[in-house]
């Protein structure tokens, strides 16, 4: 996404979720991933973002969730934890979420393919020339 000029902030990386949520603006988009989609903390973040009219996306494996009412878009992944013989929920959830992120990237790239190609090529040329070297 960085190649397209879209910068991703992983809110939970440094336990800064509240600060990230407080700084997100209406022209941003907040994506939440949650296996169970039952986080009280995420519920509060979504309420705060809704007040600021920030578009939100929830990626979750649960069909019924308190968070779905509070998010703009909801993408559901598989839920294999309900089947005793298939206790691979963590693995399948990670693969499903990774697939969805790759799909979202390709859709964003393709939405303006020619312009994105020109932009990426121009930036690559700048980098390849060594203009950004230390």
Written account of the structure:
This protein has 134 residues and is mainly α. 43% of the residues lie in helices and 10% in strands. It contains four helices and three strands, in the order H-E-H-E-E-H-H. Strand 1, helix 2 and strand 2 form a beta-alpha-beta unit. Helix 1 packs parallel to helix 2 and helix 3 packs across helix 4. The longest helix has 23 residues. The protein is globular, with a radius of gyration of 18 Å.
Can you give me a brief rundown of this structure?
The chain has helices spanning 17-23, 40-51, 89-111, 113-128; strands at 30-34, 56-60, 73-76. The chain has 134 residues and is mostly helical.
Looking across the biggest beta sheet, what order are the strands in? 1-2-3
DSSP E strands, number: 3
Rg from alpha-carbon coordinates: 18 Å
> How far apart, in Å, are the first and last alpha carbons?
23 Å
Instruction: State the helicity in percent bands.
Output: 40-55%
Proportion of beta-strand residues: 5-15%
Mean pLDDT: 84
- Low-confidence stretches are none
Q: What does the largest sheet look like?
A: 3 strands, parallel
List the helices and strands in order: HEHEEHH
Outline type: globular
Number of helices: 4
**Helix vs. strand class:** mainly alpha
């Amino acid at each position: 996404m960085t190649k397209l000029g879209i910068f991703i902030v992983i809110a939970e990386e440094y336990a800064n979720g509240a600060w990230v949520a407080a700084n997100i603006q209406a022209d941003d988009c907040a994506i939440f991933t949650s296996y169970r989609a039952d986080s009280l903390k995420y519920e509060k973040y979504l309420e705060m973002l809704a007040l600021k009219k920030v578009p939100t996306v929830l990626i979750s494996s649960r069909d019924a969730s308190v968070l779905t009412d509070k998010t703009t878009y909801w993408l559901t992944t598989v839920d294999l934890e309900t089947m005793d013989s298939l206790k691979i929920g963590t693995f399948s959830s990670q693969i499903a979420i990774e697939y969805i992120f790759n799909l979202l990237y390709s859709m964003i790239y393709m939405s303006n393919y020619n312009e994105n190609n020109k932009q990426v090529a121009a930036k690559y040329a700048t980098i390849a020339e060594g203009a950004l070297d230390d």
